[in-house]
Write a structure and sequence with these properties.
Blueprint: E1 4-13, E2 16-26, E3 31-35, H1 42-50, E4 57-62, E5 65-69, E6 72-73, E7 81-84, H2 96-101, H3 108-121, H4 138-151, E8 156-160, H5 168-184, E9 188-193, H6 196-202, E10 205-210, E11 213-218, H7 220-225, H8 230-235, E12 240-247, E13 250-253, E14 256-259, E15 267-273, E16 278-282, E17 290-297, E18 301-308, E19 315-321, E20 331-336, E21 341-342
Helix pairs in contact: 3-4
Bound molecules: adenosine-5'-triphosphate and magnesium ion.
Length: 344
């Protein structure tokens, strides 16, 4: 079933193609994450879905109704879509309670009661309701912005980097709290984030955007394990990309022969390995196939650069547990488990 459908959306700002043909379907009650580099069009897409701007071409359908197409568009306030903008955007002169109740068509008492419920839902103490936004931390303000968006019981929630101002611990906790609130309310959600870890953890469907287009849309596991190209691979996590000669479902690589995840191709290509597929141990002369070139201490792991033996001396970096106590110059044996992903 499709709840939201985006069909060939285009949006230009002067010469800049902010959206250059975006297609996507979103299932009801699901969570979609959109990732991509700064300026690739993520906020523009959310603004079009929310109805703050009109597409130059293409269509947006929500729950079977046309929200925007060549004939015109449904105004933002009639779409019943919640949005938490990149910069939070609480009204600074209103209390937390009035921020959350803003736009609700009920009396003051009912608004305050609803605001109290929503505060608890997003994990904030209702005692904060009478404070002004500048008397809250950044993370608390973001959660108030979410409570305000939830107040109108939106049928679709758009979140534009809502956690980016938070430190790591609070970020993870807030993300989980928000995900729980949204799924218990059954609200279909689209989250925009720079943070691949956040996207992988949050989403049922992950869309990778580049230069106004989706280069890949799929399940987080699929996009992580089978990215369309090396840039997407690197964007979604640590990637070890090596050249390979492919024939008969096998790749001859600088790490020796490796099984690959796709058949039917032969010739020169490049392959991807994820760090969890690679083990490295200090080795004696006959077992070794590489040398540690550089080790940067990073706490529990060390960012380690390894140069593989062979005429081309291919190198890669890997976070290796600190307990291995590797040092520059050590000879190591590098081995691979599972299949390498072949880029097409
Ligand atoms: N109102 C506008 N007028 C002109 N250009 C705009 C406008 N809004 C966005 N752009 C341009 O459109 C492109 C996409 O912008 P957008 O804000 O959608 O990017 P983004 O993916 O959200 O980036 P970030 O991760 O930095 O928030 C950028 O090149 C931006 O400069
Ligand atoms: Mg943005």
């Amino acid at each position: 079933m499709t709840f939201l459908k985006l069909d060939s959306l285009r949006k230009h700002y002067g010469a800049v193609a902010a959206l250059d043909g975006v297609d996507m379907t979103v299932a009801p009650g699901s969570r979609t994450a959109i990732v991509g580099p700064s300026g690739c069009g993520k906020t523009t897409l959310l603004r079009l879905i929310a109805g703050f701007e009109a597409p130059d071409a293409g269509a947006i359908l929500l729950d079977g109704e046309v929200m925007a197409d060549a004939q015109g568009q449904v105004p933002a306030h009639l779409r019943n879509i919640g949005i938490v903008a990149q910069d939070g955007c609480l009204f600074p002169h209103l209390s937390v309670s009035d921020n959350i109740g803003f736009g609700l068509k009920t009396d003051r008492e009912a608004k305050r009661a609803r605001a109290g419920e929503l505060m608890e839902m997003v994990g904030l103490d209702p005692a904060m309701l009478s404070r002004k936004p500048d008397q809250l931390s950044g993370g608390q303000q973001q959660r108030v912005a979410l409570a305000r968006a939830l107040a109108r019981q939106p049928r679709l929630m758009l979140l534009d980097e809502p956690f980016s101002a938070l430190d790591t611990g609070l970020r993870v906790a807030t993300r989980k709290a928000v995900a729980d609130v949204l799924s218990s309310a059954g609200i279909t959600t689209i989250l925009v984030t720079h943070d691949q870890q956040e996207a992988l953890a949050f989403a049922d469907q992950l869309a990778v955007m580049r230069s106004g287009r989706f280069v890949q849309v799929g399940s987080p596991r699929d996009v992580y394990a089978r990215p369309v190209d090396a840039a997407t691979a690197a964007f979604m996590g640590e990637a070890i990309v090596l050249p390979a000669d492919v024939a008969g479902g096998q790749a001859e690589s600088p790490l020796g022969p490796l099984a690959i995840d796709a058949g039917g191709f032969s010739g020169a290509g490049s392959i991807l390995l994820r760090p969890e597929q690679i083990s490295v141990r200090r080795a004696e002369a006959e077992d070794a196939n590489g040398t540690v070139a550089d080790v940067v201490f990073g706490g529990s792991t060390c960012d380690t650069r390894i140069v593989l033996d062979g005429v081309h001396a291919h190198a890669f970096r890997l976070d290796i547990p600190n307990r291995e106590m590797l040092h520059a110059g050590d000879r190591v044996a590098v081995s691979v488990s599972g299949k390498a992903h072949l880029f097409r």
